Amino acid sequence: MTKIPANGFLIKVRNTESQMGLQLSQRRKNLVGAFDFCGDKGKCGSNILLIDDVYTTGYTVSECSKVLLKNGAKNIYVLTLARSILM
């Protein structure tokens, strides 16, 4: 439809607790090292569109972005379907 190639460059390498109900500091700690690169570095490309269902603290996007940047991505753009506010 868009003719934009879709690739799954990320894999979750360890189980994490649900982010729901965790304190801010726990959320970050929960995701550190949870994702790894699982593709061909040569195909990572310079522009990546990272899609996430819900954006609350940005920690998931941040951890995923670190992995992608370390493996060849130059620019990362983020699309989220919903924004949640911590109370």
Explain how this protein is built.
The chain is an alpha+beta fold. It has one domain (10-83). The protein has two helices and four strands; from the N terminus they run βαββαβ. The chain has helices at residues 24-31, 59-70, and strands at 10-12, 35-37, 47-55, 75-83. The strands form two sheets. The protein has a two-stranded antiparallel sheet. A two-stranded parallel sheet has the order 3-4. Helix 2 (59-70) links the parallel strand 3 (47-55) and strand 4 (75-83). The mean pLDDT is 86.
Task: State the gist of this model.
The protein has 2 helices and 4 strands.
**Biggest sheet, strands in spatial order?**
1-2
Approximate strand percentage: 25-35%
Low-confidence stretches: none
What's the shape? globular
**Structural class per helix/strand content?**
alpha+beta
User: How many beta-strand segments?
Assistant: 4
Separation of the first and last Cα atoms: 39 Å
- The helix fraction, in percent, is 10-25%
Tally of individual domains? 1
Sheet with most strands? 2 strands, antiparallel
Quote the average pLDDT: 86
Number of helices, where a helix is a run of at least 4 consecutive DSSP H or I residues: 2
Q: Secondary-structure element sequence?
A: EHEEHE
What is the rounded Rg? 14 Å
InterPro entries: ComF/GntX_DNA_util-trans, PRTase-like, PRTase_dom
Family: Belongs to the ComF/GntX family.
Protein name: Phosphoribosyltransferase domain-containing protein
Organism: marine sediment metagenome
